[in-house]
Amino acid sequence: MRKTVPRKTAEALPERLDGLPVEPREFVQLVSVDFAGTYNVYLAAKDERLKMTRLSMSLLAAPFAATIALASTKVIDPAALASWDRVPWYLFAVVAAFGLLSVLPFLRLIEAVNAHMRTARALNNFRLLYVVQLKDHFSALGWTPNLPVDPRYPETYAPLAWPGINVMMLALVNGSYIAVGVLGLVGADPDAALLAVVIGLLALVHYFAYYVRANVSRQRRLPQNPFHFPNVET
């Protein structure tokens, strides 16, 4: 069982940190580097989320492109697409296959969110080292950095934040593709209630993967800590 240690917060720090190997004149440079690091972390997070979302949308658009290509080359009769029973089996297979393929960027999106949130936490923990001293030196100006100093923030599991909403919408779309493809392949009757139940179950499986990786997995095995530094993450 992992040993828990008290978490360090800004309130727990001493009022002065004169023992730091940093001169007062270097604090402006330090905070500018801090701002740049935080900015780059969030830029990278935004870029990664956009890339994975675009990749998912590209994969999910592939069945439509394949259907248009087959219909334009007269391989299938466009009128057959108006009836569930007349749709060729290989179109259902294509829908199911690309629904499954889009699970990969879905999982990568979860990992990207986790990685960037933990990097932001590391920056917050680093900021604790100098924030009190920084406040002392700039109090005359009435200015303090508008940056968090809590190493437990931001939370990796935040379903109502934009990354969480992005993940859950992809879960719903992926579940819809897989459900339609599999039900079409097995020749099931396209009942609305059946489709809703299957899509809901598949979306829950996706959501469970997000919940476990972003929330429960916080109680993960920690790396080696030969110097016995206290762990300040949740």
TrEMBL record:
Keywords per UniProt: Membrane, Transmembrane, Transmembrane helix
Residues passing through the membrane, by range: 55-76, 88-110, 167-186, 192-212
Source superkingdom: Bacteria
Protein name (record): Uncharacterized protein
Organism from which the protein derives: Streptosporangium carneum
